[in-house]
Amino acid sequence: MPSSDAEISEEVLEEGAYHLKGLGLTEGQIAAHFEVTPDRVSSLIRSYAAKLKSGDVSPSEFDRVFWEDVKKEAEGDVKLTFLSDKGFHHSWKSELRRLDGPTLMAIYEASKDFLGTDPNQRFLDFPPPKGYDPLAMDREVRKAVEVLGELLEEKWKEEGKSEKKPTNL
Q1: 3 state DSSP class of 25
Q2: pLDDT for 54-105, tens place per residue?
Q3: Kindly report the CA angle at 45 between 43 and 49, in degrees rounded to 5?
Q4: What are all long-range contacts of 105-114, with beta carbons under 8 Å and residues at least 24 apart?
Q5: Best exposed site among 51, 89, 118, 165 by fewest CB in 10 Å?
Q6: Terminal C-alpha separation, the chain
Q7: 45, 18 in Cβ contact below 8 A?
Q8: Residue 162: pLDDT band with limits 50, 70, 90
Q9: Where are the alpha helices (DSSP H) in 55-135?
């Protein structure tokens, strides 16, 4: 397999197919994500399993966690970078969804304030340059602010429904 910037190495495909299968994805789902046939996925899984058995590769907790994160992102759970009064943080959207409204609001406001004080914010509306993006962190925080806004709307709708429930005194 000739190597280019757009191609993924055979070893990565094997490892990914093996771990994603172990995480419960079907060979058809893996094939769709990797843009190969299900038969090709089966072959990749068998090849990696044989390498594990022969000792050519060894299982790693890091690899399993990496592919678990890839699976989460493929399912729409994104990792976000945001601010709080204690600095920058990273978290999955699903983890932030479990926070209460006031905590989400504090994170939202801190992240929004960060963006508001950045004199380069107007450049975030333009596509990032090829290679190095000096505004990568700002772009990540901006994405987080959008997701946090969505999560807050969900919380407000939930709280609005719970307030309409009759209470028995």
Answers
A1: coil
A2: 999 998 889 989 999 888 888 889 999 999 889 999 999 999 999 988 999 9
A3: 115
A4: 105/152, 107/82, 107/83, 107/148, 108/145, 108/148, 108/149, 108/152, 110/82, 110/83, 110/84, 110/85, 111/82, 111/83, 111/141, 111/144, 111/145, 111/148, 112/145, 113/83, 114/83, 114/141
A5: 165
A6: 72
A7: yes
A8: low
A9: 61-74, 93-97, 101-117
